UniProtKB/TrEMBL annotation:
<feature type="transmembrane region" description="Helical">
    <location>
        <begin position="12"/>
        <end position="30"/>
    </location>
</feature>
<keyword id="KW-0472">Membrane</keyword>
<feature type="transmembrane region" description="Helical">
    <location>
        <begin position="50"/>
        <end position="73"/>
    </location>
</feature>
<dbReference type="Pfam" id="PF05805">
    <property type="entry name" value="L6_membrane"/>
</dbReference>
<dbReference type="GO" id="GO:0016020">
    <property type="term" value="C:membrane"/>
</dbReference>
<feature type="transmembrane region" description="Helical">
    <location>
        <begin position="93"/>
        <end position="112"/>
    </location>
</feature>
<keyword id="KW-0812">Transmembrane</keyword>
<keyword id="KW-1133">Transmembrane helix</keyword>
<comment type="similarity">
    <text>Belongs to the L6 tetraspanin family.</text>
</comment>
<protein>
    <recommendedName>
        <fullName>Transmembrane 4 L6 family member 18</fullName>
    </recommendedName>
</protein>
<dbReference type="InterPro" id="IPR008661">
    <property type="entry name" value="L6_membrane"/>
</dbReference>
<feature type="transmembrane region" description="Helical">
    <location>
        <begin position="161"/>
        <end position="180"/>
    </location>
</feature>
Amino acid sequence: MFLKNCSEYSILALIPLAVWSIVVNILLYFPNGDSTYAASNQLTNYVWYFQGICFGGLMMIILSAVLLLVDFYKCSSSCCAGRQSYNIHCSRLGSALFALLGVLFSGYSLIISSLGLSQGPYCRTETGWSYPFANTAGGYLVVYSSWSQCLEPGNVVEWNIILFSILIALSALQVIICIYKIIYDVMAMMCGTHKILAQPDPI
C-alpha cells in the first residue's frame, strides 16, 4: 500500500515539474527580460531544441495524465463477461511502457540542457558574436573571471547557468520518478498483486 501511494503521488509530482520546465525554458529566450535577442536569433542554439517546453513540459503533462488513467483503469463487466477471474497485467505493462516513454522524454531534456550548460552562452565578445566557452568542456563554470568575456546580453552567463541548471534538476527528478514507476509496475506484475475478480453479467 505504501509503494502504491508513493507511485500515485510521484506521478502527480510530474505535473508541476513539467510546468516549471516550460516556464524555465521560456525564460531562456529572454536574457535579462529582453526579447530582442530572441528576435535576432542571438541565443545559444540549445534553447531551440524545446527540451523544457515540449519534451520535459507538454509531453510529460500528457504522459502524467495517461499514467493516472492507466493506474485507475478498471475492467468493465462488458469486456469481462463470461469470465470468473481476469488477471489484468496488461494495465501494469502499459503503465510501465508509458513510464519508459517518460524516461526518454525527460532524459532528452536532461541531455540537451546539460549540453547547453557545458557549451556556455552565445554572446558578443570583443571579437564579435560567438561561443567563447565552447572549448572549455564546462570549465568556465568555476572560472568566474572569464565570464566578463561576454559583453552582451548583460549577465547572460549567470542567466544561462541558473536556468539550464534548474532544467537539469527538473528533468533529473522526472527521470527518477519515471524509473521508480517502471520498477513499481514490474514488481506489481511479477508479484501478481493486480488481480481483478470479475463476475459475469446477469442473464
